[in-house]
Design goal:
By secondary structure, the protein is an alpha/beta fold. Helix content is 42%, strand content 20%. The strands form three sheets. It has an eight-stranded mixed β-sheet, with helices on both faces. 42% of the residues are buried. The chain binds aspartic acid (ASP) and magnesium ion.
Length: 453
């Protein structure tokens, strides 16, 4: 079987849903489990109306409920007619009435609990999957809707509930597997779960990818497909590098390195269940289903070794250097420095040390003044803003010193000054810091060197 996850923009309206149905039905022989997000923007709308209902009062919140009713009834109207339209719209109305009652009671009580917030957040996925399932049936597919809450068992930590893997495995094989074996296409909701006792939960914003990985791992999927609105993971940021290309294949480790740079890759934590089970995860574009996308695989199944997979960068970096002659031959110096960052819950990204100094980078200004105050008790500090971190990622880097040399030769040829280098921590990346103003030319030079046209 395979898991096919569709994000919000892939199911945003009737046209998008028709397209998704086509993609799923083309893959029917692979026994798909479809995991869908809410229609684009709906989760945000639900959370906003829930949060505003205690204060903004019930009229305002109820008006927003009606807007959502209209939006989903309209999709139904575009997809169906006659008897089916009547049935689907009545089901939408029943759900929206339920939502309206919930909102009313929150407005009356003047209090919103996280538990109610999760129940409300869940309406988006419940509506989108209802529409999608009816549409596929109308297209002749033998499909069935399974409530994610019946399978995806979680803790009761509302809004960020923790999936309970054993219970999920058990329920998925008991509830979903037999349907797939019988040849049915199963549709379920991303993002949603329920406690053992059946109280609705959610597993965190953007959680549908995580749901897909959890279902895929529980059912030992051949492949987990994440359908989005980009062609896959790119060799670099296409807004800076117009000829950035789609990476055909990369490893989970490479994806994890790139995630920090916001390279539109899946968050590594969300695909962890797939990594554990060695299930390839493929990122695909639902608007261009014929493009092969990017497949993310474990190291073991990684094919031809290349030098470099991707070049990513992050802007607005602050570089801090702490110098102290007391550091020489001393123990505990680094521990003291990092304790200060930890106490302020500040994450440090790149570090480099010498005998008497330590350079590190942070990516936000939050709490910095307080941190500097404390750091001065440890040594002299120097702070430079508006730096940029570059990260050249590739499994091939660990076996090929020449690829590393090529990075710095390229920077040298373009006279791009580098202020900090970190090599080797993960073996598959070279990270260095350049001036913020050099971002574009650094990216262009490296991309040209590693991915010539
Ligand atoms: N609809 C949920 C959200 O917007 C989950 C998802 O789309 O992944 O956070
Ligand atoms: Mg999403």
């Amino acid at each position: 079987m395979i898991v096919m996850k569709f994000g919000g923009t892939s199911v945003e309206d009737a046209k998008a849903m028709r397209n998704v149905a086509g993609i799923v039905m083309t893959n029917a022989v692979r026994r798909p489990l479809v995991v869908a997000s809410a229609c684009a923007g709906v989760t945000n709308a639900l959370l906003t109306l829930a949060r505003s209902s205690p204060e903004a009062g019930r009229e305002h919140a109820l008006a927003q409920v009606e807007e959502l009713r209209v939006r989903h009834r309209k999709i139904a109207h575009d997809l169906f007619s006659g008897e089916v339209l009547f049935t689907v719209q009545s089901q939408i109305d029943a759900m929206m009435d339920e939502l309206r009652d919930l909102v009313k009671s929150i407005a009356i009580l003047g209090e919103l609990t996280e538990r109610s917030l999760d129940t409300i957040a869940g309406f988006g996925e419940r509506l989108s999957t209802l529409l999608l399932c009816h549409h596929m049936k109308q297209q002749g597919a033998d499909c069935v809707l399974v409530s994610a809450g019946d399978v995806l068992v979680t803790s009761a930590e509302y809004t960020r509930a923790v999936p309970l893997r054993e219970a999920i495995d058990e329920r998925a094989s008991r509830i979903i597997a037999p349907l797939l074996e019988a040849g049915q296409i199963v549709i379920t909701q991303g993002f949603l779960g329920a406690t053992e006792a059946g109280v609705p939960t959610t597993i965190g914003r953007g959680g549908s990818d995580y749901s897909a990985a959890l279902f895929g791992a529980a059912l030992n999927a051949e492949e987990i497909q994440i359908w989005t609105d980009v062609d896959g993971v790119m060799t670099s940021d296409p807004s800076v590098i117009p000829n950035a290309k789609v990476i055909e294949e990369m490893t989970f480790r490479e994806a994890a390195e790139l995630a920090y740079f916001g390279a539109k890759v899946l968050h590594p934590a969300t695909i962890q269940p797939a990594v554990e089970k060695n299930i390839p995860v493929r990122v695909l574009n639902s608007k261009r289903p014929d493009v092969g996308g990017t497949v993310i695989v474990s190291e073991g199944s990684f094919g031809a070794r290349r030098g470099v997979t991707s070049i990513a960068y992050k802007e607005d970096i602050t570089l801090i250097t702490i110098t102290s002659t007391r550091m020489l031959m001393m123990h505990g110096f680094l521990a003291r420095v990092f304790a200060i960052f930890a106490a302020h819950r500040k994450s440090v990204d790149v570090i480099a040390t010498s005998e008497v100094s330590l350079s590190l980078t942070v990516d936000s200004q939050e709490n910095l003044e307080a941190i500097f105050g404390e750091l001065r008790s440890v040594g002299a500090i120097e702070v430079v803003h508006d730096k940029s971190i570059f990260c050249v990622v590739g499994e091939g880097l660990k076996s090929s010193p020449s690829a590393v040399a090529k990075v710095f030769r390229t920077l040298d040829e373009h006279a791009i000054p580098v202020s900090m280098i970190s090599l080797g921590a993960s073996e598959i990346n070279v990270t260095f810091v350049v001036e913020g103003k050099d971002i574009q030319r650094t990216a262009l030079a490296l991309h040209e060197a590693f991915f010539p046209d």
